[in-house]
Amino acid sequence: MSHDKLAPRSKIILFSLLLTFILAATSVVAQTPQETAATSQEKAISLTLEDCIRKTIENNLSWAVEVINPQLAEISIAQAKEKFMPQLSFSFNRRDTNSASYSWLDAAGNVTTLYYGSAARLIQELPTGGNFSISLDTYKNDSNRNFQTINPRFGSTLQFNFTQPLLRNFGFNISRHQILLAKNNKDISDYNLKKTLQDLIYTVEEAYWNLVYSIENLKVRQQSLKLARELLEKNRRSVAIGTMAPMDVLTAEADVATREADILEAEAQVKNNEDRLKTILNLVAENKELEWARLIPKDKPTFKKKEISLEKALAIALANRPDLKALQIDLKNKQLTVNYTKNQLLPELNLTASYWSPGISGSRIIYLNNNPLTGVIVGTIPGGISDSLKDTFNFKYKNWSVSLNLSIPMSNFLSRAAYAQARLNYEQALLRLKEQEQQIFLEIKNAVRAVQT
């Protein structure tokens, strides 16, 4: 009987020990992260406002993204300037033809021709909207045709071409339209970067001083709780000796409870402001353990009396606000586009001038009695490409031409639509600029009033 009674009791004891072991292990595992967090939370970082601004510039991702924009704008300027980079081109071709002869004047059998050609060209776009080019073309032609006086024949031509638009696409600002836009966009990117920096510094300062305020507010509420508890103890003693009603104790206890709730709220506010400042500083980029560190502001707010004039403050703001500067430059861009699209409505009238110097040489064929009609070749005088080039660069054969070409489109619907759109964009940008000026005036007026009052 005693053995039967002990068996269940032993099982109960073993089960209890096993359950205790499991709960203990679970408790250890569950407390490990908390202990780690608690250890990390014990770390504290003392930061001045200047430290926070410096760390923000070093670590903030939004700032890092914005810094790239001026670099991209610089690349856009370089791309736009490529239009005025000289363009050098080369070409080479060979043509071998073989056809039947239909006349004794052509050849005795098949007519064969072997042709080699090469060319080099240098083209330069001009700021006035035109272009200038230099080209050198050379060739060699070898054929079995009858009655030729030179075969193979070498030729070369040095040519200068100048083309200048007189209506559409004429003018420095028209030809450099994309470059001017790119440069203005670079200035806009710089001002936007400056605006981002100002906003970022303002955000850091606001978060920093909010944290300072919340810490000081927590201290004040802790002091209020201390005073409320002292009053509660005093009321309890007064009730004990009969000099105060018990209701006063309940009132004091309610006040203590309120103060304790205020402290919880203040502590939460401190944590929220710490997290806000940590996010702006991006301290995790420096050290992941700093995510749990406490931030201790070292700077304290100071008061300095300073007289502020509304007119002076407004003048400074209008002269230095980067967002206003960016809108002013954007308005210039819109005006450039209006001028460009208006120019595209004009007819196309181009002045073209050319000057070229050809040269020709080769093996001269000597016929019987100097009469090619005899078909009897009695000798040749050799010649080559060098003789042709000599004639070319000595300008032995001078040629020139000048022409005016007028092109009037029957319909310029797309160009007129682009011009109308550009004008509307300009008017919109002008209104946006005026709206921003009004907003700045209101902000400055409110800020000055807030300081003065």
What would you note in describing this structure?
This protein is α+β, with helices and mostly antiparallel strands and 453 residues long. The chain contains 10 helices and 9 strands. Strands 2, 3, 4, 5, 7, 8 and 9 form a 7-stranded antiparallel β-sheet that branches. Helix 2 packs across helix 5 (177-240) and helix 5 (177-240) runs antiparallel to helix 8 (322-343).
Summarize the structure.
With 453 residues, the protein is α+β, with helices and mostly antiparallel strands. The chain has ten helices and nine strands.
What is this structure's SSE topology?
Elements lengths: L1 H40 L2 E4 L1 H11 L1 H21 L5 E13 L11 E15 L5 E13 L6 E16 L6 H4 L1 H64 L5 H36 L12 E4 L12 H11 L1 H22 L4 E20 L9 E5 L3 H9 L5 E9 L5 H40 L1
Parallel strand pairs: 1-6
Antiparallel strand pairs: 2-3, 3-4, 4-5, 5-7, 7-8, 7-9
Helix pairs in contact: 2-5, 3-5, 5-6, 5-8, 7-10, 8-10
Notable traits:
elongated, 3 domains, single chain, 57% helix, 7-stranded antiparallel beta sheet, 10 helices, 453 residues, two-stranded parallel ribbon, alpha+beta
Q: Please report the total strand number as a whole number.
A: 9
Q: Please give the largest β-sheet.
A: 7 strands, antiparallel
Classification by helices and strands: alpha+beta
Helicity, as a percent range: 55-70%
| Domains (count) | 3
* Gyration radius over CA: 45 Å
Please state roughly what percent of the residues sit in beta strands, choosing from under 5%, 5-15%, 15-25%, 25-35%, 35-45% or over 45%: 15-25%
What integer is the average pLDDT?
Answer: 85
Number of helices: 10
Outline type:
elongated
Low-confidence spans: 1-41
H and E order: HEHHEEEEHHHEHHEEHEH
How far apart, in Å, are the first and last alpha carbons?
A: 94 Å
